[in-house]
Every structure is written in structure tokens, then in C-alpha cells.
Amino acid sequence: MIKINQENLYFSEPLLEMGAVNRFFVRLAIYCFYAVLAVAAAIFLLSDIGRLFWAGVLLSLFLGDRLLHFSQAERSLFDLNGGKEQKINIADYLTPVAFKALEKAFEKSVFVGANFYLYLAKFLTENRDVNEALLRMDVDIDRLAEKTEDFLKNQPSPPKTKKDLTGQAEILLKKAFELALVSGERYIEPRHIFSSLSFIEDQEIKRLFNLFSVNPADLENAIVFGRFRRNFYRFSWLRLPRVLGGFAAKHDKIRHRIMNRAWTSRPTPILDKYGIDFTDLARSREIGFLIGHRLEYERTVDVLSKPGVKNIMLVGEPGSGKETIVAHLAYEIAKDKVPEPLFDKRVVSLKIGSLISGASADEVSKRINGIMDEILAAGNIVLYIPDIHNLTKTSGNHYLSAADIMIPIITTDAFPVIGATYPREFKEMVETRSDFSNAFEVVRVEEINEDEAVRLLTYESIILEPSYGVMVSFGAVKTAVALAHKYFRHKLLPASAEELLKESLADASQNNKKILKSDDVINIAERKTNVPIHRAGKKEVEKLLNLENIIHQRLVDQEEAVKAVSQSLREYRSGLSRDGGPIAAFLFVGPTGVGKTELSKILARIQFGSEKLMARFDMSEYQTKESINRFIGSSDGKIAGSLTEAIIQRPYSLILLDEFEKAHPDILNLFLQVFDDGRLTDALGRTVDFSNTIIISTSNAHSDFIKTHIDAGTAMETIADELKKKLTQYFKPELLNRFSRIIVFKNLSPENIKAIAALQLKDLARVVGEGHGVVLEFSDEVVGRVAELGYDPAFGARPLRGVISDKIKSVLAEKILKSEIINGSSVKIILENGEIKFI
Fold first, then answer.
1. pTM across the whole model
2. Burial class (CB in 10 A: 0-12, 13-18, 19+), 725
3. Rounded Cα gap, residues 200 and 172, in angstroms
4. What is the average pLDDT across 230-258?
């Protein structure tokens, strides 16, 4: 991109320095001049005199040229030579339409007063490109115009001098000049001036734009829609690029050459058979568009151009943009926008699969040697080898590795090579061969950021719209990127966002929607992830506000724990939970059978829809250091991480870590990052997001200590404080401090056990009723007897299920099998002489 020194820019336009009357007469004179020329051309063309006829032809050509360039500026930004001009008059690059809006704002501010920028905004919103961009941002154009008028009326000020207005215009147009240059456009259009308004330090404009949630970054991207607003015009496919790469060459005339201009290169038939010429694709406008990756691209060009090692190894995850960088290099070479050592080169991608497919060792060797000879003879090839690690995989018992043939030539720097590979393959297959890896300079290709992905997806939307027959709002694009980056981390941006946008467009098309909005994208994301993304609706709000009571329908007592989990969920759904970290991370401590695991199950059912959305881990199975591989996976990919894979598949879920204290210390250390940042990197280098999970760790540590103090009547707050100190025998202080809450579960009293027994018997009655149509009724005495038999201070409520199974379910099963109890019957279970009986 050409860089221009802002100090070299100025704005001067004689027409604006004139009065309105003088401007009128100047324009009148110009129009009369062209009218006279048009009449003269017509008369001359009808003349029988040869000289007059040809003069008419020349006049017609002149007028045709002026008409053809009527909507263009005096000069093109493409003609700039890197800012070597001493001074640049911005007025020369303004299109007539842009200048007209500027002129009208000038006149109003000179004669009426009020804010020049507000007047300019008013006139620019009448432009179709600006109008289109604002509509894509869901801005009500009529209301914007109405508010602009209100601002102008309520802000009276004396008329401005032309000098003051020229100064204000210059500040604005410098930014518009920069925006047009960055976006690769030929002239300064009204859309660039409107976009630059959002960067101006003017309180009235800021107040207006804030009122309609128009921020600079969004507006700058939405302007792209205005630039390509023909999407729904008939035959728009004739004017829009077929692929994203076509946007790179929208205004450029690219030469098509087979040989270099010096005619010193040679044909490469074998390479052409087993390769793809990226420079040819760039000339046909199929590749070359690049957003982001500027540092990686500049580093690649720098290495390929300098003396010495001219080989680059691009290392990045799938979809990170490695090939896009190479494609952009080919495009820049085709336009002669590269350093001299790369001038006139051909970028050719080698298809290794085709090269070795169905060939013997001798044939592979022959093909590779032939290709190497052609490249050396041609002298103008930059060889691109995607998945270069595959070179080391082509060897076998009777095969010679392709790398063994190519390495000696690559290491001589006889021609530049660009290799592309993935982090894992680079570590396992490339780095282990020092002779191979030392021949390359490594460039790490990272994922593009969200702002870059938004801009890229905006261009992608322009191509997608005609295919689906649905207009894409800018809000939908922005939402797709934000949600993809947060919830679909199995793929990198922009691929993850593009996938979500396409799925949303397909759904909108099936439902005959004319425009895709952010809510439509959110609906699809919710469907794919089961994560609640929309604001809580009326029913959900009611459930959240009444969550304690709902939980207590299934759980007896443990008020502190129930209140803590309910509060955390309310904070999460209201958007008040802290950035980073999971929704909440609790440590439930207490004796066995008091409801720690049961509360987790109830919460999974109520909030997450099913116990199946609870990822449960028995931490006693992870007591050795080696078991960490089972938790986050092995580096060779042979063992999948049970924890990380569970969250990748279900990002919105509850994680239950039973008997947390029994895990190996190295595994406990993993949760330092999880509890703090809500992220964990698995063995394959993937970052797993835990920000939409509730993590509950349970522990029976110091149960005797808890029981003794509860029996002694010690306050729970005091017990919790003392217990936290004692828990350092099991957990590091830094881990304990990262829990949202450490909650002590109380021992269950006989009354609690009776209440739990009633709940479990109610569940049994529901199951029998749904499965067999049998109505079960339990007397209070039966409930009391079950509670009495199932009460054990050492095991809490756990023995209850055994008692119910032994005394009731087993008897009931026999009676159903013997047809003593049939569908539709009613059974009352009572206590008689200390025995449970069915009547």
C-alpha cells in the first residue's frame, strides 16, 4: 500500500472561494462551451468538406471521452508514486458527486451558519452508496435525516468564513483521502467522506452518530456494501467477482505474460503438469485478495528478496491464511508491486499428491529431477510447496524420499521456495530433520483478528447474497464473526464465521426472508451450540428469578449452595459475569451423601436441559502424572482429551469433577488457567473455551472436621473459613483462591432424610405411572419408615435408594410380573405392624 505523508496533503478549490453567483456563471460558461462544441461537432459531421468532417470526428471523440469520464475526478489515486510529490491537492481526487455535497454544505454554512459537518452529513446521506451502507447497519434513514435537521435547528451559530470552512474541510478530506487509499479505490467518493465524519472530533457529529450506534470501524466496513450495492440488480453476477480473490483486481489492468519481459526464461512442461501457476490465477482475477497478515506477507517478501537464504516456511493451523499470503504475492508480482529480485517471477504451487501418485521410486525420482532442471533453467520460478511435510512421508522400503532429492537443491538457494505446514507436522516431521529445516526461515501465520474477519466476511457476503437471494445486514456479519470466534473455536477465523453465515443464509432463504439480521445468526448459533445467546425471554427470566425454589423441589436444605449457583446463573444471563473464566467455579466440600453430586445433576437438568449435558469426571481415575494425556490428549493425537473434547463438543455445559482432591497435582495445576481465564490449551495446541461452563468440584476432605463443628453448633461461616485453611493440605492456595465460592455442605438431619425419602418415593410413583399406568400412593408412615431405615449419619442419604429398592421396588416388580398389579390399577402402600405392605 502506498504511504502518503499527511503533511503533503492540502485542500484548495477555486470554485469554493468564489461567491455563489460567480460559481453559477462559471458553470454556465462551461456548459455553454460544451454545448457549442456538441453543436459544432454535429454540423461538422454533416459537412461534405473533408477537413470539417474529420474535425467533427475529433470533437466527437473529445466529447465522448469527457462524457465517459464525467463521473470521475481530475486525477486518480492509482497515479500516485508513493508520496514523492511535494504537495498533493485533495480536490483533484474528488469525484463530482463528492464535490457537489461538499459545495452544498459550504453554501449552507456560509449563508445560514450552524455546523458544517452536520450539513455535510445531511447531504451525503442522500447518496445511494451511503444510503446502502446505513441500511445495512439497520439505521433508519428517515429518522437520521430528521434528527440531523433537529440538531441543525437547535444549534444556531453565526455564518462561517470560507477560510474556516476550508480548514474544516481539509481536516475531513485528509481522512477521506486515507480511507480511499487504504481501500484501494481510484477516487474519493461520497462514501469515503461520510466514513471520515465518524473520525472527526466534533461533538455534534459524535452525538448524532452515537444516537444511531454508528461507530467508525463498523461504518468503514459497511461502506463496502455501498461500494458494491448492485447485489440484487438483475444480472449482477456479470459485474461481481465470482470468488473472493476477484476483489483484489477490481480496478487494475494486469498484463498476461507467459515469458518474462527479458525473454530469458524457459518453458516448464513437467512443472506445469504437476503444478498450479498462481500468477496465471492472479491475472484471471481468481486469487490475490488479502485482508490482515500484513506482517507475515512483508516478512515473506523481505526474505525472498534478500541475499542468502531465500526460502520461507509458513507455519500455521488449517485456515490460518498461509496459501492466501502466497496468492497475494503472486498478485503483487503480476502488478509489478514487489522488490526487484521478485520482479517478473512466476509463483507455481507443486501438487505433491499428483507428483507421487501411482509412480514407482524411479518414476518419482525422474519427475522430481525433471522439475528441478526446469526450474533452474527457467530462472524465474518461486516454488510453493503446500503441506511440505509430506515430502518426508513419501519414502518406504523401496522408495527414495522426495525430500532427499530436493534438499540438496533447496539448500543451495538456487531458486526461492515457499513451504507451508502445520505446527504439529512441523514439530514432528520437519524440525527433526535439521538439514531440511535449516534451509528455511520460519514465519508463523496467526489467525486474523475479529476486525479483519468482519471486513473479509463483508466482501464474502456480497458474493453470497445473489446465491441465496437474501440481503445480508452488517449486523449479521459482525455477529457471525463474534459468535464464531467465541463458540466455534475448532476452526479459525474467517472460516468458522463464513460457515455460520452460510448456514444462517440457507435457513433465511428456506424461510423466505429477504434480509439476514443478527438475530437470525444468533438463532443458528444457539441451535448449533445449545448456548443461550439471546437476552433471556419472559419464561427464562421467571425461571431464573425463581431458581432457588425450583432447585429445592428436588434438593433438600443446603441453602448456601443453592443460593450461590442461582446467583451465578442470574449474573451470567444478565451479562454481568466477569470477562474471562467460566460462569462459575465451585468447590463443594462435605461428607458423602449430603447432596453435592445431586445438586450438580439437578442444575444440569434445569439450566442445561439434561443430565447428558453434564460432563462428569471421577478424579480418582487421574491419580498418575501419565493420566494427564487422557484429560487433554496426547501430542501425537492418538489419545483424545476427555475434558477438552467434551467442551469442544458441548461448550455450554456443566462440568462435575468428583473427588477433586484425589487427582494428580499436575492435573490440578491445569485448572489454575481454567478457573482464571476460562481457557485451556490441549496437547494439539487448540485453545478450548470454558467461558460458558459451570465447573463444580466435589471433595470429601475433612468431613469429620465439618461434622464435629456442625454438631458443636459452630456457624457455617466460621467452619468455611477454618476449612479453607485446612484444605491447603490437599490444594495449593492459588488454586483455592480461584474458586468462585467454597461451599460447605451440612450433614443431613433425620428430618432432611425424611424429606428426601418423600422426593424419591414421588419419583418412583411418577416412573411407575408413566411406564405402567399404575397409581402409587404412600402413607406418611411408609415415608417415615423408609427414612428411618435409610438414615446413616456416616453416609447421608445414599442408603435411601437401597432401602427403596429392597423394600418397595423389588416387591413391586414381582407383583407387576405376576400380573397382580395391572395397568390402570391403584396401589396404596402402608405400614402395618412395622412392615411395608401393598393394598
1. 0.70
2. exposed
3. 7
4. 49
